[in-house]
């Protein structure tokens, strides 16, 4: 069943499991989110719901935005995001989704805007290689090397790596395990890092690839003969 919610990145910390192993985790303040709009197959050609997150003062919105919330009869929200969910038909405008739609052990995909790195060179931006630093190398060592032939085609093809603005782009991290869910604090804790700075808005959905990973692991396990494996040991 597809599930989704909007949240904010609080920051990273670490916890310890039962064996004492350190687990790096990210804390996310997720929800509550309210259904602001509902898309139907009859009217819009597809089924989806638009979720709103975090209250905002009316003076910070324009008339069309205020009219959108007034029609839905919900308080103005700062962030809006549309999700295609299996349960879209069961949800109605005004319904509220909380963080408890997820459980410990679930796997999720988190989408956010990555941190801005400013103007960066090709080494930092694309992991390019340095030029030799001895035996006549230089005078520069972190510049881009040859861009190709100078006679034909006598130009640099579009998309060639080079220095430029880095970061501030949409990034999705997949298959993050939910370590803890606290409905009272609207908090969800996931194993690993997520994109964006502290306070950055993120969109959380249950992952679509974990089942493939589990099936692959099961398939690999069936190819191994336990008797042969024990004999090799």
Walkthrough of the structure:
This protein is an alpha+beta fold. The protein contains 5 helices and 12 strands. It has helices at residues 41-44, 63-72, 122-126, 210-223, 226-232; strands at 4-16, 22-30, 33-39, 48-55, 77-83, 96-97, 107-113, 118-120, 164-166, 170-182, 187-191, 201-206. Strand 10 and strand 11 form a beta hairpin. The two termini are 42 Å apart. Residues 228-233 have low confidence and may be disordered.
Essential attributes:
single chain; 233 residues; alpha+beta; six-stranded antiparallel barrel; four-stranded antiparallel sheet; 5 helices; 12 strands; 17% helix; extended; disordered C terminus
Structural class: alpha+beta
- Assess the beta-strand content as a share of residues: 35-45%
Distance between the termini: 42 Å
Q: In angstroms, what is the radius of gyration?
A: 24 Å
Number of E-type strands: 12
In brief:
This protein has 233 residues and is an alpha+beta fold.
Secondary-structure map with pairings?
Elements (H helix, E strand, L loop, with lengths): L3 E13 L5 E9 L2 E7 L1 H4 L3 E8 L7 H10 L4 E7 L12 E2 L9 E7 L4 E3 L1 H5 L37 E3 L3 E13 L4 E5 L9 E6 L3 H14 L2 H7 L1
Antiparallel strand pairs: 1-2, 1-12, 2-11, 3-4, 3-6, 4-5, 7-10, 7-12, 8-9, 10-11
